[in-house]
Amino acid sequence: MSRPVALITGASRGIGRAIAEALSPSHHLLIGGRDAAAVAEVVAACESAEPFVVELTDADAVAAAVADITRLDVVVHSAGVIAYGPLATTDPAEWERVLAVNVIAPATLTRLLLPALRAASGLVVFINSGAGLTASPGWSVYAASKFALTALADSLRAEERGIRVTSVHPGRVATDMQAELHQLEGRDYDPSKYLQPAAVAQVVKTVVDLGTSGVVPSVRVTP
């Protein structure tokens, strides 16, 4: 493989798909997602890509999926779930659901990919959120997961000196998840008022293009 290799989770839609489109001219892509048909559509649209279809909360399935990856230049953790509601009405099952996808899954995938990332002096990008920096009412579960993701990135950066680690904290982005959020909040949704996925993807591409000459530990992107 002459191209550098990048694995992008949650790449079948939204921010993840935009990142795949931004990196397609320069990288061979592993397109992550659970929906094989949606992943295949993105693979077909990229210059050099293959599917990475796996349930990220299934540690055994993830281990099997990455077993043949011996060198990896970039991994972008874009998969995630939203949650909205006050702590008083949030049950343990919701905490487990959100933390499993937003924290434990990227931690597990990164751990399994460490040998491949070390071999390439690779880059790990966590697509976080403004909620990973500041919590607001109604966001207890989601913000806790994103604060934990910030801590995960900071710890990884300190532990793995040969691997670059970047946290990207976008404000609200015009995605299907944003539409879902507005429905939960009971508000009308106007996508033109928010960041476009391509803007976040451009930030990620800038970080990737920096190469081993430096690292951007954290970047905040707002509408």
Question: Could you provide a short overview of the structure?
Answer:
This protein has 223 residues and is of the alpha/beta class.
Explained architecture:
This protein has about 220 residues and is α/β, with parallel strands linked by helices. It has a single domain (about 5-210), classed as Rossmann fold, CATH 3.40.50. The chain has 7 helices and 7 strands. A 7-stranded parallel sheet has the order 3-2-1-4-5-6-7, with helices on both faces. Helix 5 (about 140-160) links the parallel strand 5 and strand 6 (about 165-170). The longest helix is centred in the middle third of the chain and has 29 residues, at about 90-120. The N and C termini lie far apart (about 35 Å).
**What name does CATH use for the topology?**
Rossmann fold
How many DSSP E strands? 7
Beta percentage is: 15-25%
Helix content bin: 40-55%
Distance between the amino and carboxyl termini = 37 Å
